[in-house]
Design a protein that fits this description.
Blueprint: H1 2-9, H2 16-23, H3 26-38, H4 40-48, H5 51-58, H6 68-86, H7 91-122, H8 142-145, H9 151-155, H10 174-203, H11 216-225, H12 230-252, H13 255-263, H14 283-297, H15 299-302, H16 306-338, H17 354-377, H18 380-403, H19 406-418
Helix pairs in contact: 2-3, 2-16, 3-13, 3-16, 3-18, 4-14, 4-16, 5-12, 6-12, 6-14, 7-10, 7-11, 7-12, 16-17, 16-18
Length: 419
């Protein structure tokens, strides 16, 4: 809803960076753009960590998915291949749609069909993570509260929903239809994820959930139904290709924001972040982010717990994204105060600022709950690592801004004119 108001009031390209820059300051706009770029460093490692288990399952060797060295090797090899291809070809155009079908739509249908068949055959399995329902289980226990460590990971599902605001201009009567559409889509997302989670939790044994192994429930479904495990091999290979194609589309996407930031003079010209090829890709930006992603991937070399690394990276990615949401929440209120007469085709509340304050405070409180619940229920080492990653990446843009000088923009403009 906040993005709907800000996006229609400022429909120019830039998104969160533009909103925060206009409402708060150029420095905080740069911080937002920076965070939206660097959150992909742990985020892409998290996504790429599924490659190892998928490849192992494709060849009928599921144990490889729990080998941290194999997972590390797969991330490094395949991500660098995708990066180098992205510098030569328009990979987003080549693999975007196919990747979504192979990596998301078809797998969801396969999992749903097999899950329902397994439920019909065996019912609720007492040894599963889900277990049988009882009224006593509604009261949280110390062990039950430990599951809050997954809260940030679940919240990550909804990050990026603000981009739906770009479709507002196409809507008839957006004040009503956009709000309804957002709530319908959110309810749909929650219901689909809950149902799928419960079906998976029904068959995966308690304490045996493998977070980065998408194929784990498929193998269990095959055992329950007596179907050939080749189904799991084909499923894994299909999703493996889908993930690679989706990664290829994501490699260059976030880099476009940092290219614009560099061209606005917020980064030194010598970094070359303002330069791009015929596909709109900055070689220096893409190589820098791939090096950073490779360094994050080394966590799989230092930590043997594949689940632990996956959870740490998910939490760090979500918290970095959440900082941008905090700035957006403040931005909408600041803009209401400073520019009350600004044209807002979509507005939170017909009159006054009460609803805008309510929505913004709800967002801020929600983020605070997610962050504290996540940090206080994970292990001390994982929490410290998440905090360190978040603090360092948040401080860096402020340091860059401190040493920013006008010569950066002059050098960049001169270099752009020569081309």
């Amino acid at each position: 809803m906040i993005a709907g108001e800000l996006g229609t009031a400022m429909p120019e390209e830039g998104g969160p960076q533009l909103w925060i820059k206009t409402a708060l300051s150029s420095k905080l706009g740069f911080v937002a753009a920076w965070l939206l770029w660097v959150q992909m460093f742990p985020g892409m490692v998290m996504v790429a960590s599924t490659i190892g288990p998928l490849l192992g399952n494709s060849f009928g060797n599921p144990t490889l998915g729990n080998n941290h060295w194999f997972v590390l090797g797969c991330i490094l090899v395949f991500y660098w291949i995708i990066t180098l291809l992205s510098l030569k070809y328009d990979m987003a155009k080549v693999g975007g749609n196919i990747g979504v079908w192979l990596g998301v739509y078809i797998p969801i249908v396969i999992m749903a069909v097999m899950a329902i068949a397994a439920l019909i055959k065996n019912g609720i399995m007492p040894g599963g993570t889900l277990g049988h329902f009882s009224m006593g289980k509604l009261i949280p226990t110390k062990d039950g509260l430990s599951s809050l460590k997954y809260m940030a990971g679940i919240s990550f599902i909804f990050t990026g929903i603000e981009m739906s605001s770009v479709f507002i201009p196409r809507l008839h009567n957006p004040s009503k239809t956009f709000t309804k559409g957002i709530f319908v889509s959110l309810i749909g997302l929650v219901v689909l994820n809950l149902v799928n989670a419960m079906l998976v939790a029904n068959v995966v044994p308690m304490g045996k959930m493998e977070l980065s192994n998408i194929t784990q429930p498929i193998l269990i479904y095959c055992q329950i139904l007596g179907w050939p495990t080749m189904i799991a091999n084909i499923f894994s290979f299909m999703v493996f290709i889908g993930v690679l194609l989706q990664l290829s589309a994501w490699v260059t996407g976030p880099s476009k924001t940092i290219i614009q930031v560099a061209r606005d003079g917020y980064l030194p010209a010598k970094l070359g972040f303002h330069k791009q090829n015929q596909y709109g890709v900055s070689k220096n930006v893409v190589l820098t982010q791939t090096i950073a992603i490779s360094l994050f991937a080394l966590l799989y070399g230092f930590m043997k717990d594949v689940n632990g690394v996956f959870l740490t990276l998910t939490n760090a990615t979500t918290i970095l994204y959440a900082i941008v949401y905090l700035l957006i929440a403040v931005a909408v209120l600041k803009l209401r105060k400073d520019q009350p007469d600004l044209d807002r085709p979509y507005r939170i509340g017909k009159k006054g600022n009460g609803l805008a304050w309510t929505v913004s405070i709800a967002l801020i409180l929600g983020i605070a709950i997610i962050v504290f619940a996540t940090l206080f229920t994970t292990s001390l080492s994982q929490s410290l690592l998440v905090v360190i990653i978040s603090v360092i990446f948040t401080i860096i843009p402020f340091i860059i801004s401190k040493y920013k000088n006008d010569q950066w923009l002059i050098d960049i403009q001169k270099d752009m004119q020569q081309k």
